[in-house]
Amino acid sequence: MTSDIIIEPIEEKHVEGFRKALDIVARERKYLVFLEAPPVEVMLSFVRDNIASGHPHMVAVDDGKVVGWCDIRRGARDAQAHCGVLGMGIIPDYRDRGLGRKLILATIEAARVAGMHRVELHAHADNLRAIALYEKVGFRHEGLARDAIRIDGRYMDSVLMAMIFE
Ligand SMILES: CC(C)(COP(=O)(O)OP(=O)(O)OC[C@H]1O[C@@H](n2cnc3c(N)ncnc32)[C@H](O)[C@@H]1OP(=O)(O)O)[C@@H](O)C(=O)NCCC(=O)NCCS
Question: Under CATH, what is the fold of the domain 6-164?
């Protein structure tokens, strides 16, 4: 079933679908630092900047519907321009079928081609599925930020993981 899903670089035509997917995952209140999607104009300028600046940003599209995304934003300052920060999500019905692995591998490859040296990410410490995926594709644990997340009054640790392109 995931074989029919296309993974492709984001374009402006995907913005509404990307926003919808992000909003669904954010409103689950379990996985992201967003608890709802930002307004569409904020999403549009985020996507436009990713395209113009060459920040890798892939979407998974099923029959025209955006069902997942993965982006890696390059550091804005000179001394961090070799580093990217990764974020991703897949809407519920499309999880646990290998799509996350395909999506992250395609985006990491784009970061490598773009000349990045390091990709890092943060995950809520209880997000075992995401952490397992990140470990499987080569991310290593670098640290734990205690109580870095607070959702509905509950504090949670956040793990820092990173991959270095040799
Ligand atoms: C995290 C996410 C991107 C993973 O994508 P996915 O398509 O569901 O995951 P995949 O099927 O590609 O792979 C997950 C891997 O972790 C394993 N896994 C799943 N749950 C696990 C658990 N609790 N413990 C250990 N391993 C687990 C799976 O077996 C699979 O490994 P395999 O490829 O060797 O079989 C997706 O589930 C998602 O978007 N979740 C909600 C949002 C989110 O968490 N975003 C990331 C924020 S940091």
Answer: Aminopeptidase (3.40.630)
